[in-house]
UniProtKB/TrEMBL annotation:
It catalyses: 2'-deoxyribonucleotide-(2'-deoxyribose 5'-phosphate)-2'-deoxyribonucleotide-DNA = a 3'-end 2'-deoxyribonucleotide-(2,3-dehydro-2,3-deoxyribose 5'-phosphate)-DNA + a 5'-end 5'-phospho-2'-deoxyribonucleoside-DNA + H(+). Its EC number is 4.2.99.18. This is Endonuclease III. NCBIfam families: nth. It comes from Hassallia byssoidea VB512170. Binds 1 [4Fe-4S] cluster. Keywords: 4Fe-4S, DNA damage, DNA repair, DNA-binding, Endonuclease, Glycosidase, Hydrolase, Iron, Iron-sulfur, Lyase, Metal-binding, Nuclease. One of its GO terms (molecular function) is class I DNA-(apurinic or apyrimidinic site) endonuclease activity.
Length: 226
């Protein structure tokens, strides 16, 4: 089957980039009204650990690993004092397990020793933790504390933001800065979650379903792939 041709829409021609971004956001809210973080966790430290494990791994796989992990080591103190080999074995199937286990333990030791066993709720403090960059910090702040400090940029958000013509950058920090300029702060984190849902359901990396996409008339890339 050949590429489907999507007519060029006048909608995206008459809207500014900011207006287009906010219209995309409105449609994503309608499409995925109940979208939320798909990682399973009970506390901010469990969310932190699950997010570290999700690097280059699916959330589905992480959710298969964390019940046993959190059953054995439910909090920062127990993770800080865990036997590293046991910790590695528990997270092995998420990939890069040695580095992930080392970072999780080092982060939890810092949380215990420097933050009174509580995951910090400020970006600059979170970024001090081993294994934590802005993506992880934004997830923890947004879903663990309800704080929109930035826009989480993962592979789905990167791909869709580029396809939608909202950024030309490839660096996650520059993409985040572009999106921050286009979106209301109150929607920074739910933008990411809903875009991730859309990336999984419709705008897939190799075969975006442009003919079924309710963002197509707003998307300069519609019909170019598939």
């Amino acid at each position: 089957m050949g590429t489907k041709i999507i007519p060029v829409s006048t909608t995206r021609k008459r809207l500014s980039k900011k207006q287009r971004a906010q219209e995309i956001l409105s449609r994503l809210k309608l499409l995925y009204p109940d979208a939320t973080c798909s990682l399973n966790y009970s506390t901010p430290v469990q969310l932190l650990v699950a997010t570290i494990l999700s690097a280059q791994c699916t959330d589905e796989r992480v959710n298969k690993v964390t019940p046993a992990l959190f059953g054995r080591f439910p909090d920062a103190a127990s993770l800080a004092n865990a036997d590293l080999t046991e910790l590695e074995n528990l997270v092995r199937s998420t990939g890069f397990y040695r580095n992930k286990a080392k970072n999780i333990q080092a982060a939890c030791r810092m949380i215990v020793n420097e933050f009174n066993s509580q995951v910090p709720n400020q970006m600059e403090q979170l970024l001090k933790l081993p294994g934590v960059a802005r993506k992880t910090a934004n997830v923890v702040l947004g879903h663990g504390y309800g704080i929109n400090a930035g826009v989480t940029v993962d592979t789905h958000v990167t791909r869709l933001s580029q396809r939608l013509g909202l950024t030309k950058h490839t660096d996650p920090i520059r993409i985040e800065l572009d999106l921050i300029e286009l979106l209301p702060q109150s929607d920074w984190e739910n933008w990411s979650i809903r875009l991730i849902y859309h990336g999984r359901a419709i705008c897939k990396a190799r075969s975006p379903a442009c003919v079924a996409c309710q963002l197509a008339e707003l998307c300069p890339s519609a019909g170019e792939e598939g």
